[in-house]
């Protein structure tokens, strides 16, 4: 079996460390390689390189260079598509179609931000006669990007591309569970010939020393973080001491609301995928199903049948519908959440759980679960599970559905299933979430803002608003006076 040796990418060079971590295939638990695991030292070197690149290269001042490099990165990812899909499937456990979905989403994001770099502009105005004001939008400096393991390629690109477009240099921390993916991505992003050394740096760590340095450093004024709400709150508290800018996409507990006029046949496969894509390890995973009384039994029973038939298996098997969780500790964690919910009164329609015998027993596999609930205060309803576990609950009226959906500290996304357009729009406006998908799920586009309400985050990714995490506004006031009036006093 091929083994890999990941490297950090710092100041244009690929470097390792005396301290090494081990990479595994979550489907088999076989060792697939090693990676440098000295996050604190790597982060320090990366911050230094990024700071130097920001001060001494043309990057912050040359929008055309930035656009050119982002376009070159998009081409590089397309050239290396198959390799990226292979390593995503191997180390991340994604079935091949889902790995392809992730890899194929990156080039368009890079091209979108290349276009935004070319069109980025401040503004000018004449607030009073004889006065001229210019508002500049300037890059903040070094941007720290902290990436989770669940979709490491697309979530890295989603954060660093707008940072680069804005003129920032970046330091990206990738988790140890995605070390080999990080290394292949770094090799791919290093291909553009016009990229100055130090503009983009990537390091890997199993712990949090390097991430902590990014958050604490006075040389990193802005952080883009995707991960848990708990961690997002903690790093925000630390960064507040330096008035640091944060863009945070955090946890979710996405409700899927099914009204009695929903189109059942196209809906059920989407509800299934809303739970099983990335094995439920996705911030927008559909984890709360709210169904109107009239169709409740039909939806519950038919969806249960579909979930029982989900073929769980490795990415190497083209018949697999859902891959493993990222590791066995997460299998144990999710199984305990399900058992605690059953003990607290939830009814297991489909119990799901770990696969403990047969050829898949060595891997981190977990069959999807469907739990019927009536008490919205249960932890299984209120807390993010980050695994393929779905609760189902009935409602009577539209107002009941809205109240149940909004009974949460999270507000990342939701979906609404109805043929009544007026109802869809009413409910979408009433839901306290950042994205609402009508008769669909997780339709995210490069040009539309994505982010959450409440404990689901701060700021927006994708769309023009994503630049706000990486720019400062500067007002330059001038008093040129008025032409043809030599006696006029400027500004009066």
Q: What does this entry look like structurally?
A:
By secondary structure, this protein is an alpha/beta fold. It folds into two domains: 4-250 and 456-475, Aldehyde Dehydrogenase, Chain A, domain 1; 254-438, Aldehyde Dehydrogenase, Chain A, domain 2 (3-Layer(aba) Sandwich). Helix content is 37%, strand content 23%. It contains 14 helices and 25 strands. The chain has a seven-stranded mixed β-sheet with strand order 15-18-19-14-13-21-22, with helices on both faces. It has a six-stranded mixed β-sheet with strand order 10-9-8-11-12-24, sandwiched between helices. A three-stranded mixed β-sheet has the order 1-5-4, covered by helices on one side. The termini are far apart. One of its GO terms (molecular function) is oxidoreductase activity, acting on the aldehyde or oxo group of donors, NAD or NADP as acceptor. Belongs to the aldehyde dehydrogenase family. Pfam families: Aldedh. It comes from Rhizobium azibense. This is Acyl-CoA reductase-like NAD-dependent aldehyde dehydrogenase.
């Amino acid at each position: 079996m091929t083994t890999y040796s990941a490297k950090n990418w710092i100041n244009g060079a690929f470097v390792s460390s005396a301290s090494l971590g081990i990479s595994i295939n979550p489907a088999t638990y076989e060792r697939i390689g090693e990676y440098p695991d000295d996050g604190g030292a790597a982060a320090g070197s990366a911050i230094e390189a990024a700071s130097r690149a920001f001060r001494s290269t043309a990057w912050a001042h040359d929008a055309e260079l930035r656009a050119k490099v982002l376009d070159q990165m998009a081409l590089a990812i397309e050239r290396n598509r198959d390799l990226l899909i292979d390593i995503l499937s191997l180390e991340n456990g994604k079935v091949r179609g889902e790995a392809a979905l992730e890899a194929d989403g990156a080039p368009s994001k890079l091209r979108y931000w290349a276009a935004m770099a070319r069109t980025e502009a401040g503004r000018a105005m004449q607030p009073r006669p004889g006065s001229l004001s210019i508002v500049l939008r300037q890059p903040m400096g070094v941007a720290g990007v902290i990436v989770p393991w669940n979709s490491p390629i697309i979530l890295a690109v989603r954060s660093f591309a707008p940072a680069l477009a804005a003129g920032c240099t970046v330091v990206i921390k990738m988790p140890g569970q995605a070390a080999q993916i990080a290394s292949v991505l770094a090799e791919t992003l290093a291909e553009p010939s016009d990229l100055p050394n130090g503009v983009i740096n990537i390091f890997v760590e199993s712990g949090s020393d390097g991430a902590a340095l990014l958050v604490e450093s006075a040389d990193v004024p802005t952080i883009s973080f995707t991960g848990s709400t708990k961690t997002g709150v903690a790093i925000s508290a630390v960064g507040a001491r330096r008035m640091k800018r944060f863009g945070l996409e955090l946890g979710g507990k996405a409700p899927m609301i099914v009204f009695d006029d929903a189109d059942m046949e196209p809906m059920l496969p989407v509800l299934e995928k809303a739970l099983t894509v990335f094995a439920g390890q996705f911030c927008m995973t559909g984890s709360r199903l709210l169904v109107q009384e009239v169709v409740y039994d039909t939806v519950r029973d038919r969806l249960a049948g579909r979930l029982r038939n989900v073929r769980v298996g490795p990415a190497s098997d083209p018949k697999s519908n859902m891959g493993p969780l990222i590791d066995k500790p997460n299998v144990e964690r999710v199984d305990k959440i399900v058992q605690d919910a059953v003990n607290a009164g939830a009814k297991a329609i489909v119990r799901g759980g770990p696969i403990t015998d047969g050829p898949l027993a060595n891997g981190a596999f977990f069959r999807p679960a469907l739990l019927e609930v009536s008490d919205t205060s249960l932890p299984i309803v209120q807390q993010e599970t980050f695994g393929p576990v779905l609760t189902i609950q009935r409602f009577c009226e539209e107002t009941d559905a809205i109240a149940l959906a909004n009974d949460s500290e999270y507000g990342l996304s939701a979906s609404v299933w109805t043929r009544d357009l007026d109802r869809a729009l009413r409910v979408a406006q009433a839901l306290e979430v950042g994205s609402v998908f009508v008769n669909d799920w997780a339709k995210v586009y490069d040009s539309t803002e994505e982010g959450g309400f409440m404990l689901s985050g701060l700021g927006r990714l994708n769309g023009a608003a994503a630049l706000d995490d990486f720019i400062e506004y500067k007002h330059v006031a001038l008093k040129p006076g008025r032409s043809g009036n030599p006696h006029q006093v400027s500004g009066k």
